[in-house]
Amino acid sequence: MLDQDLLLRAYRALRSALPGAELFYAMKANPHDAVVAPLAADGCGFEVASTAELELAARHGVPPERIISSNSVKTIDLLRRARALGVDRFAFDSEDELQKIGRFAPGARVYCRVVVDNSGSDWPLSRKFGVPAGDAVPMLLDAAALGLRPHGLSFHVGSQCRDVASWRRAIETCAAIWQDAARAGLRLEALNLGGGFPVRHLRETPSWNAIGTEIGAAVAELLPPGVRLVVEPGRAIVGGAAVLVTSVIGKARRGDERWIYLDAGVFNGLMEAVGGLGYELRTERDGPTSRQVVAGPTCDSMDVIATEVELPELEVGDRVYVMNAGAYTLSYASRFNGFAPPELHLLPGVALPR
């Protein structure tokens, strides 16, 4: 169940917490039309990683200046189609990617993704993406030599970052690169702060206002005036706007463990549970609780959502509500074992169990 009012409320709250920054919704978090349409109408920008995401933004009338691509490995098709539509801002983190952008999106603006500390996040991203700080300026100079326009730097502190100081440390890293770039004759324009703004699940999270205050202070202190700030929230915008409604399809006792099985699991909506994300689960039943293992419906032993959840005694057919499940549920879901992905329903104002 998706509440578009909550979706827009989160977008506007982030915009308020990050004054002066351009917001580009990371479409990978949830690319459903019901998510994209209200954000597009409210003036949000979009970050796309594929041709399909690009075409979706275009279908909703998003102008090219409100579209960027920060996936540091892009297909040739995406580059060609983006340039045909007038989109001209792309991330890179390798010489090979620069060569590809130079060939298929000549004259584009490019920003170098830099490795930063991800230790404050629940879901680190630094191994697969980014270049060491010392490599950024030489690669930006190479970009200029290819006829591309060195536009700036980008980073990502990791998904579900709960350490406010992570953004300051990342900005400190980028500020040093910025100074080196200026000495090398490069005039950078933009700093892309990526995403990582957390949504409440089972662990305490800092407020977006606290994060925005830290970012604003670091930028004012460490970077020259007029730097263009870009952010790419995905989970933060859509995560809290939806609840996944599941039903109990089975129960079992295995040794000392009590198990319940739901009609949705890691393969058809809750893949992030495999990476350690703990979802808050609610039911409509009262009464004493016990520690239970919650699993999905497939025949794969990996399909376990949580191993120690306090729940009341449930029966087959009872509903279990997975809270704050708007992000990465639809986009990760498959049809493994023939179990269908969740369907999206717009039900604003529905009362949920507490």
List keywords for this structure.
alpha/beta; TIM Barrel; Lyase, Ornithine Decarboxylase, Chain A, domain 1; 2 domains; eight-stranded parallel sheet; six-stranded mixed sheet; 9 helices; elongated; disordered C terminus
Task: List the SSEs and their pairings.
Layout: H1 4-17, E1 22-26, H2 33-41, E2 45-47, H3 51-59, E3 67-68, H4 76-85, E4 89-92, H5 95-104, E5 109-113, E6 121-123, H6 133-145, E7 149-154, E8 159-161, H7 165-183, E9 190-192, H8 208-222, E10 228-231, H9 235-238, E11 244-254, E12 257-262, E13 281-283, E14 289-295, E15 304-312, E16 319-322
Parallel strand pairs: 1-2, 1-10, 2-3, 4-5, 5-7, 7-9, 9-10, 12-14
Antiparallel strand pairs: 6-8, 11-12, 11-16, 13-16, 14-15
Task: Explain this structure.
- With 354 residues, this protein is an alpha/beta fold.
- It folds into 2 domains: 4-239, TIM Barrel (Alpha-Beta Barrel); 243-333, Lyase, Ornithine Decarboxylase, Chain A, domain 1 (Beta Barrel).
- It is built from 9 helices and 16 strands.
- It has helices spanning 4-17, 33-41, 51-59, 76-85, 95-104, 133-145, 165-183, 208-222, 235-238; strands at residues 22-26, 45-47, 67-68, 89-92, 109-113, 121-123, 149-154, 159-161, 190-192, 228-231, 244-254, 257-262, 281-283, 289-295, 304-312, 319-322.
- It has an 8-stranded parallel sheet.
- 45% of the residues are buried.
Give a nutshell description of this structure.
The chain is about 30% helix and about 20% strand. Helix 1 packs across helix 2 (about 35-40) and helix 7 (about 165-185) runs parallel beside helix 8 (about 210-220).
